[in-house]
Amino acid sequence: MLTKIEGVVLRTRDYGESNKIVTIFTREQGKFAVMARGAKKPKSRLGAATQPFTLGFFLCFSGSGMGTITQAEILESHVHLRSDLLYTAYAAYWVKYLDNMIQEKEPAPLLYELLLSMLNRLEAGVDPEILSRIFELRVLESAGYRPHLDRCVSCRGTEEPFAFSVQMGGILCSNCFYRDPHRIPLSSASARILKQLQRMTPDRLGQVQVREETQLQLERVMRCFSDEYTGLKLKSRIFLDQLKRDWGKERK
């Protein structure tokens, strides 16, 4: 059976001398793997369409085994992302994070739209660190891990200062700090921005300026929370961390 479907390429791996196995994420069918025969050949029409982050229409033939891509039409190549090593690293981290948090052939239309928006906003030059925090919050929420950020997770109070408790899954007011000796301190700005990001979608995010100290607090909170509840240890994140360190050294 032939099916034409819109999707984003999450990842590929070589199969034999000239073929690729391509994992595509779609709105209607979730993610699934298909064979792209001859895609590694220099003159293959499928070569460009099966690059990571590419949005396209894919004509797939499915039978009893793995499906096969017979034709592909590129809608958005995101070539600018792939030409910038740091942007590529951010996009690769998001895609790998998502890939590990969703199941095969389970539709996730909201996450599909989220990924499209993330890639477009990154290419438009929006702060990738803030985008990363939005992405992590949304993907975690879809998996049932939504941190409590509106008020103290223990007493429901709203008085500052706040800290974040990974163990309790949300922010703590100063009266409840004793509940978690391993709490993560939060500035007023960090607590406010984290709450705003939980409600925000990437397409609503313009050019924002967030202090480096605040950025680091947000990253630490989300990393600790994600590590605790998902257990993911991604090589793509390690690579991104190294690039950010190297980039920071170059700026000094």
TrEMBL record:
Stretches assigned to the DNA replication/recombination mediator RecO N-terminal domain: 1-77
Pfam families hit by this protein: RecO_C, RecO_N
Gene Ontology annotations for the cellular component aspect, listed alphabetically: bacterial nucleoid
Role: Involved in DNA repair and RecF pathway recombination.
Family: Belongs to the RecO family.
NCBIfam families referenced in this protein's UniProt entry, alphabetically: reco (TIGR00613)
Protein's recorded name: DNA repair protein RecO
Organism: Marininema mesophilum
